[in-house]
Amino acid sequence: MIRSLSAALVCVALLVMTAAQSQAGVMATASVGFPTENSFVRDGFTGNGVLGAGGTGNHANIGDYVEETFGNTGLANTTSSRWQFSMSDFTNPGIINTFDARINGVTVGSYSFAGGVSQSHAFDLNFVHAPIASYTSVLGPDSFFFTLIATSSVPVNNGGWDWIPGGTVTLSGMQSANAVPEPASLAIFAFGACAFGVTTYRRRRKVNA
Predict the structure, then answer these.
(1) Which range is the signal sequence, renumbered to this chain (predicted)?
(2) 3-class SS of residue 15
């Protein structure tokens, strides 16, 4: 009986290990809303705060940014990202406004717009980059923080710009072990299957005795 039980436990362990290994290297995606009304902003005019309704012309300085952290994305890292968001523009014609997009402080791409063309600009940006690992934050494991930061300044008396909440960032990368419940489910199934095998074996021994 002890040998049979040991065999069952070994069976469970092997199946769980196999299931976990089969999940390693699986590609996955995760989408989060960014920027949001609660996103942190650095404002050269009024100081730090949250984005709120956005859509103003409050920002004009290099280094102004909007940023937010998201946890439990289910990704161990990200190798590409899609950024969809809008900005308001009250800068004068001829002003070129430039920005960087960052993940965990790493610049993954850039974008720009010319002033005076429209009072709002919609962006749909796709960036491919070297793997950027997630980390554990106060919001949970598999966290990333996203930043949109100005890399240019608007000359004095030439207006300003702002971000508008309601955007989306979609990440593609390697799935995290934290997001994979299958091994546990398989463990239950495997234990039942192995236990059934042990029971059947014992019954056969009784019949043959």
Answers:
(1) 1-24
(2) helix
